[in-house]
Amino acid sequence: MTNQNSAENAEICPAQKLLKMLSGKLKPEIFSLAIKSTLRFSSLLREIKGANKQSLSIALKEMEEIELLERVVVKLKPLHIEYYLTEKGKSLIPVFQQLEGLV
């Protein structure tokens, strides 16, 4: 019975939840950059060492699906796409910053 309760509490832990959401090669760095400013695909390709179009596209799509990022099409010329942290993403910033401080 005690093991089940501790397992349930571990699942609720915000740090563990965030780590699961940001698992993968590029997601932690994308999240870190999203805290600082709006993201654009081309700038992410330049800023993240080792990123390629396919892996970056997949990571962004997965972060959209778990509602950490919002994708916005800006219809000004030239047409481009920007990514913003959602409210859910913003709520996880303190947990992320605490984890960064441990390293």
From TrEMBL:
GO molecular function: DNA binding
Name of a matching Pfam family: HxlR
UniProt xrefs under InterPro entries: HTH_HxlR, WH-like_DNA-bd_sf, WH_DNA-bd_sf
Domain HTH hxlR-type residues, every copy: 13-103
Key words of the record: DNA-binding, Transcription, Transcription regulation
Protein name: Transcriptional regulator
